[in-house]
Amino acid sequence: MFTMYKSQNNHQIIPLMNKLLIVFLFCIFTTNLFSKESNNYFKRGKDHYNKKNIEEAKLNFEKDIVRNTKNIESYLYLAKIHKKKDNSLEFEKNLKTALLLDPKNEEALYLLIIKKIKDADYVFATEKYKIFSKHCSKLCSKKNEIDRLIKKSKS
Q1: Are 49 and 77 in contact (CB under 8 A)?
Q2: The pLDDT of residue 132
Q3: CA-to-CA distance for 93 and 24, rounded, in angstroms?
Q4: How far is residue 118's CA from residue 112's CA, in Å, rounded to a whole number?
Q5: How deeply is 78 buried, as exposed, middle or buried, from its count of CB atoms within 10 A (0-12, 13-18, 19+)?
Q6: Which residue has the higher pLDDT, 19 or 130?
Q7: d(Cα 49, Cα 36) in Å, to the nearest integer?
Q8: 57, 81, 89, 123: which could join 48 in a potential S-S bond, CB 3.0 to 4.6 Å?
Q9: Closest by alpha carbon to 153, among 123, 131, 132?
Q10: Cα separation values, 35 from 40, 60, 68, Å
């Protein structure tokens, strides 16, 4: 039924397959290296942040995001850094990016709600507060603070 055909070019196919295997293994190895390197940037950023070395922390979180665009924690740390530097636009941009990746992220929701209340954008703040209230687990204690700020802003 099935017959194997002998080809005169078989001796050329095997070295080609070996080369493809080497390229494949190289790709896997370098991907793994980038993943570990990205993790190191995040850890370095966190260490610098905790030591109040804001500029170095910012640089490392940005490097981490280049290699791992979906690391929500890096966006949150960048948002906090921009808040400390009074850069409102970048603060909000990083929070919104974190919320794009995880719409129920409590910390990003909380920080954005507080910012929007200070900006007098009460409709947006109330909208995000509803999401925050439904999904809070770690920061539920902040609900009273947000309630108070929203009520105070309406009066």
Answers
A1: yes
A2: 92
A3: 38
A4: 10
A5: buried
A6: 130
A7: 20
A8: 57
A9: 123
A10: 9, 14, 8
Q: Backbone dihedral region of 3: left (phi > 0), alpha (psi from -120 to 50 degrees) or beta?
A: beta
Say which DSSP state 138 is in.
Answer: S
Query: Is the Cβ–Cβ distance between 48 and 56 less than 8 Å?
Result: yes
The string of pLDDT tens digits covering residues 37-48 is 546 999 999 999
Taking the C-alpha atoms of residue 113 and residue 38, their distance in angstroms, rounded to an integer, is 30
Q: Cα 150–119–88 angle (5° rounding)?
A: 130
The label of the residue with tokens 């539920």 reads 140
- Rounded to whole angstroms, what are the CA distances from 69 to 14, 64, 73, 94, 97? 39, 8, 11, 12, 10
- The C-alpha atoms of residue 71 and residue 104 are separated, in whole angstroms, by 15
The CA radius of gyration of the chain, in Å to the nearest whole number, is: 25
> Helix, strand or coil for residue 105?
coil
Please give the structure tokens belonging to residue 79: 């948002």
DSSP letter, residue 119: T
